[in-house]
Write a structure and sequence with these properties.
The complex is a heterodimer of chains A (about 150) and B (about 290). Chain A has about 150 residues and is α+β, with helices and mostly antiparallel strands. Chain A contains 3 helices and 4 strands. Chain A has a single domain, classed as 2-Layer Sandwich (Translation Initiation Factor IF3), CATH 3.30.110. In chain B, strands 1-3-2 form a 3-stranded mixed sheet. Classes of the chains: A alpha+beta (about 150), B mainly alpha (about 290).
Chain lengths: ~150, ~290
């Protein structure tokens, strides 16, 4: 029974802190996305033909986000019933957008105005035995183009 | 070429849903599902149990009973004799035999296990004020054997733990806790039901043996006192036995509806048995004394 009480406490903590951090993170993501909109990211591998070629450099941004207890619980309930895991969808959405933002920040610091050939890598770290809380790493990288003066 | 990154609307890759609603829906689905599965298993096992031969129970129980730390043979004999006297009133199924075992231990308990073996601990025996309460206790335990409760409990336990290990391997510890606790609470409900049926059997045999049911509640008064001494009390739904106060009330009610005489002669446990119990208590107390 004490297990059950601990479970309820952990679920409550997970829910309230998880919700708080998530909404705070989204606000910050949306704000910075507007801030860095001038740096264009393009998935194409082929850069524009130019008479004055830019100098290029690899830029990347990576982020690690942990799943909270509540999300984990919801996901493992989903593993019994099937269906979309909404709780993880928002987690990964945040991670991808944050990774791009960090990559853009990197590009911005180098004076780039666009990033080509961008790619994502996703890895789940702390893939520990059952019961452990998982976390996810998203890495975004691409080739930044710095205009020649 | 002109490149641009337009503003992408929210809610495409992740939908804003109410996680609490999803949580409540899924959790209640799990709880209801586990209760239904447990109930179905319990029903199946209960109906199959009658067909499990009693010899099978005896074979399984033999190894455990051999390891039992048996107490004084004279007490054993007295209990067996008393049990043999009341068994004819209990209408046991054919082939079912009752074997009594006295164990010199402070535990205030008694139990019926597989193969018709009934284990009585000194801790409970020495607290019983009279033979009538002892007959109630024996009747209760023999009632368990008669209704095949030990083998039913074993069957349920085995099947449910097998199922659990299959399901729980897939889910996290947290979900496992919810599933196993739900199943356990459902099983406790069945356990309380079994205890009540055995109480009825005990009262019935008291009436058949003595012609009255005086002293039946003495057994539960002992248990109640024991319960009162505990600092931490479990709520009813977490208990394998019904609330002792409720059991006393229920038995009184049952005696009234059946119009069984609640007054009558009280018989006492012979002095030589009480002396042995007191001796045994001393032996254990000396063993436990710090050196």
């Amino acid at each position: 029974m004490s297990n059950f009480v601990i479970l309820v406490i952990l679920l409550g903590l997970g829910y309230f802190f998880g919700r708080y951090y998530e909404s705070r993170h989204y606000k910050s993501i949306i704000k910075r996305e507007n801030q860095y909109r001038n740096i264009v990211v393009i998935a194409s591998r082929i850069p524009p033909v130019s008479e004055k070629p830019d100098s290029t450099i690899l830029v990347m941004g990576s982020v690690v986000i942990s799943v909270d207890y509540f999300k984990k619980f919801l996901a493992s309930l989903r593993s019994l019933f099937g269906g979309r895991i909404h709780a993880y969808e928002s987690l990964l959405d945040r991670a991808r957008r944050e990774a791009i933002l960090r990559m853009k920040q990197h590009a911005h610091q180098l004076g780039a105005d666009k990033v080509f050939n961008i790619k994502y890598e996703t890895a789940s770290i702390s893939k520990n035995p059952r019961g452990g809380i998982g976390s996810v790493e998203v890495l975004a990288y691409g080739t930044a183009f710095i205009p020649q003066q | 070429m002109k490149y641009s990154n337009p503003h992408i609307p929210e809610g495409i890759n992740s939908t804003e849903t109410n996680p609490l609603k999803e949580f409540l829906l899924l959790t209640s689905a799990v709880v209801v599902g586990v209760i239904i599965i447990t109930a179905v298993i319990a029903m199946l096992v209960d109906s199959i149990a009658e067909y499990i031969p009693f010899e099978f129970e005896q074979t399984v129980a033999r190894q455990v009973i051999e390891k039992l730390n048996k107490g004084n043979a004279e007490v054993d004999g007295y209990l067996q004799h008393l049990s043999d006297q009341i068994v004819p009133f209990m209408d046991l199924p054919e082939g079912v035999k009752i074997k009594l075992h006295y164990v010199n231990d402070d535990v205030v308990n008694a139990m019926a296990t597989l193969g018709g073996h009934i284990i009585l601990y000194r801790g409970l025996l020495e607290k019983l004020p009279n033979e009538n309460a002892l007959v109630m206790l024996l009747g209760h335990e023999i009632g368990h054997v008669k209704m095949r409760h030990p083998v039913k409990a074993l069957g349920k336990g085995v099947i449910i733990s097998l199922l659990m290990s299959a399901v729980l391997g897939e889910s996290s510890d947290a979900v496992a806790t919810v599933i196993s606790d739900t199943s356990m609470l459902t099983m406790l409900g069945y356990s309380r039901e079994q205890e009540q049926l055995s109480d009825e059997a005990g009262l019935h045999v008291m009436h058949a043996f003595y012609g009255h049911v005086k002293g039946a509640t003495n057994l539960f008064e002992v248990l109640q006192q024991q319960n009162n001494e505990q600092v931490f009390k479990l709520p009813q739904f977490l208990n394998s036995h019904p609330d002792t106060g409720f059991r006393i009330k229920y038995l009184k009610q049952l005696a009234e509806t059946k119009r069984w005489d609640q007054q009558g002669k009280i018989n006492f446990v012979p002095d030589y048995i009480l002396n042995i119990l007191a001796e045994d208590k001393k032996v254990i107390a000396e063993l436990q004394e710090p050196v």
